[in-house]
């Protein structure tokens, strides 16, 4: 069957167990969904995800989310082949552009020459400069930043350079301008960084600092064509919701929506579903990652999943017979795991249309690129040889 509209939803960081190469990333034992289920001890209620088959591809079902005898949708997992486990790596690979060259990362902080250029351009001193949790370093240095107007710069285990500043001290517009300049410094060849992240925050003191929805990711431009580019070139409508625009530097996207939260993102999705178009709508819901995973807030992560599941019911009710829904994730971020970084995990793959007759397993796909290959196949668009379409398995 050919579908008129495809809706892809990325539950940012909701992995489903250690990937085959987890040991290479020191992530053995990571299992975002499994550990959230264990924490809630049977009280993690995800009825819509459950009936789509969320636990069916797992050796051990998620506690509180048992396997179902006849899922409404096709179910499986996907294994990442990109060399990193950042959001950019995961999303690019989904769109048939796996990241094969390691990007620059800075476990000991950024080099002095790079920081000196940012300081000179901004006219501001730089503090921090180490791998750290964003909430922790803002709590530690935020009051100093308010007094001095300095820039808080920090990183993580991924290829990211994050710049934090209080919105009352450095306007969002200025922070973006500084971040754009930083982006221009790390596009290679000496330093090639995946994302520059502007991290505005508000609050009167360290006990009340809150990072705002004005976060903006200045991502390395795709190093080749993605599924989105191929679709757009062939007249297929492409819509990005959430940080999709940032991750792809707006390339290959006809229409974009900025999310204030997961629920705001679902509101945007509801809006798009009311439109008559032929194409692909790609949604990222980042709260699981930014608000809970990195903060190792397992309770909040589970509650956010249950809130999403409720909204998913509305999505299912709105779908037409020629619509296709594909739910996945871009990496893991086990909120019970050591540290505060992403975790190398398999990601779930749930595929549903009201027209499906007897869905079965899609097994574990060998690359996230199968996701994009299937979308391109549906719209009869020639892309590249990355990934294998599973369109002909959907009945």
UniProtKB/TrEMBL annotation:
Pfam family, one: Metalloenzyme
Cofactor binding annotation: Binds 2 manganese ions.
Family: Belongs to the phosphopentomutase family.
Binding site for Mn(2+) 1: 12, 330-331
UniProt protein name: Phosphopentomutase
Enzyme class: isomerase
Residues reported to bind Mn(2+) 2: 289, 294, 342
CDD domains associated with the record: PPM (cd16009)
Protein's gene: deoB
Domain Metalloenzyme as annotated: residue spans: 4-382
UniProt organism field: Bombilactobacillus folatiphilus
Places the protein is found: Cytoplasm
Major subcellular site: cytoplasm
Keywords: Cytoplasm, Isomerase, Manganese, Metal-binding
GO terms of molecular function: phosphopentomutase activity
